[in-house]
Design goal:
Layout lengths: L1 E2 L8 E4 L2 E11 L7 E8 L5 E7 L3 E4 L2 E12 L2 E6 L5 E4 L15 E7 L4 E6 L3 E9 L12 E6 L4 E5 L7 E5 L5 E4 L1
Antiparallel strand pairs: 1-6, 2-3, 2-6, 3-4, 4-5, 7-8, 7-10, 8-9, 10-11, 12-13, 12-15, 13-14, 15-16
């Protein structure tokens, strides 16, 4: 058993019959009244994000999780198939455990979180950034760099994102997988 003083970013805990990870937290000691810890929690099973307040010293159930490196192989009717990089065992994950599947590229290295006690997969985390080729976008015009206007573009994974007007088909770009934002050319 841990207490609220042990809370840190990335910590996993059992709360309301679900497993949550701490996205951010803040210890608050108001001038009047008892101290408390304000947290933002993300469900590892459902992906839902909630804000919660714990009283200072409150007991919480910490959950041990393990991160294992997997390589994305393909998608079929069983789900998304991954291969363990150490044992070469293959595993299929359902779509609800895969974060932002529209950015998955064949051969991509990902982390899969496992519940350490019963060895069940909880969540799949992608790299923060990917590099992909623009497969289709309207042609850009030379000199279209003065404004911050964006246009739709399709990248090699099939995802549609917004890019600046000067980006053309065939260029490699950097994309943030958390938000789907264009970050630059490579």
């Amino acid at each position: 058993m841990a207490t609220t003083s042990d809370i840190r970013n990335g910590m996993c805990l059992d709360y309301n019959n679900d497993i949550w990870t701490v996205v951010e937290f803040q210890h608050v000691k108001p001038g009047k009244g008892a101290a408390f810890v304000r947290t933002k929690l993300k469900s590892l099973t459902k992906g839902k994000v909630v804000e919660n307040t714990f009283p200072a010293g409150h007991a919480i159930d910490e959950v041990r999780v393990e991160r294992r490196q997997f390589q994305y192989l393909y998608k079929d009717d069983m789900g998304y198939n991954f291969m363990n990089m150490e044992t070469y065992d293959q595993m299929a994950l359902p779509e609800n455990l895969v974060e932002n599947p529209q950015f998955l590229q064949e051969g991509m290295q990902v982390d899969v979180l496992f519940h350490a006690a019963n060895d069940t997969p909880l969540n799949m985390e992608m790299p923060t950034f990917i590099y992909s080729e623009v497969t289709y976008t309207e042609p850009g015009l030379k000199g279209d760099t003065a404004t911050n206007t964006l246009k739709p573009a399709t990248i090699a994974t099939g995802a549609e994102i917004k890019v600046p007007l000067f980006i053309n088909t065939g260029e490699k770009i950097k994309v943030d997988t958390r938000t789907g934002e264009y970050l630059g050319r490579t």
